[in-house]
Amino acid sequence: MFKQKNIITILTLSLCWLPLAAQAQLDDPTRPPGHRLVLPGGKKAATATRFLLSSVRISKTRRTAVVNDHSVEAGDTVNGAKVVAIYPSSVKLKKQGKTFTVRLVSQLVKKVRIR
Q: Is the pTM of this model over 0.85?
């Protein structure tokens, strides 16, 4: 009888930890780019920021692009990176002294004739 009560007590206590284990955050591939994982205690995990170029719009007077869901022009900053230049299918960014290029997700570029 004594052993049975001990086993039941141990099982009950071990089940108390189950909700805590279920709260562990897993890497979710559907999270938006640049999303930072928040660890227990409110600390942010050190993750690399990804840059996603969704669209580019070029007219005679203005060039804009959508990077990480933010509309930007040359000189603007997105996720800590400065927009250096906007091209028809890519954007040149500079972050922490390093220059890199982000290309459109789709390589299909539609050319529109402006009158």
A: no
